[in-house]
Write a structure and sequence with these properties.
Strand content: under 5%
Shape: elongated
Oligomer: single chain
Number of strands: 2
Structural class: mainly alpha
Strand order of the largest sheet: 1-2
Number of helices: 6
Helix content: 55-70%
Distance between the termini: 69 Å
Order of helices and strands: HHEEHHHH
């Protein structure tokens, strides 16, 4: 890896790695303070990021996008034990499943509105079914107030 700011063979400055990932430099410093990153230092004491650091930053970003917090990411990276890793990731997997189910239900509602042939979407059988499920009805489509 070469950088025009290469102060050490194959390394990047904090500004260069921050720009590469679209991050502010203070984010990288925070991750370092939390023990998530361990950049080398040049003779002047400036941080130098190598290929392993690039991979680490990309990993942190991917895990954050998956919904994991920095503390969880730190715990995950501190373990090589499969059982511990599973214990750490199980709640995250459940949370993602829940979010996916909620997004799927939202998509079903929106697509129902797109495909509804009624002028008033609230009269669509699919819409009424989804709302009845949300209210907790057993599928009955009461017309209270109509």
């Amino acid at each position: 890896m070469k950088s025009s700011e290469d102060g050490g063979a194959g390394t990047l400055s904090i500004g260069a790695i921050a720009a590469r990932f679209g991050l502010a430099t203070h984010v990288l410093r925070h991750w370092e303070a939390m023990g998530l990153l361990h950049p080398g230092r040049d003779t002047g004491g400036r941080r130098r990021y190598g290929a392993d650091d690039l991979t680490r930053v990309a990993t942190i970003l991917a895990l954050k996008e998956a919904g994991l917090g920095l503390t969880t990411i730190g715990s995950l990276s501190a373990t090589v034990d499969r059982a511990t890793r599973q214990e750490i990731l199980r709640p995250a997997a459940e949370e993602l499943r829940s979010r996916i189910a909620a997004a799927q239900a939202s998509l079903e509602l929106v697509e129902g509105g797109l495909n509804c042939e009624h002028d008033d979407v609230t009269q669509c059988p699919n819409y009424r079914r989804l709302i009845a499920e949300r209210v907790g009805g057993s599928g009955s489509q009461s017309r209270a107030g109509s």
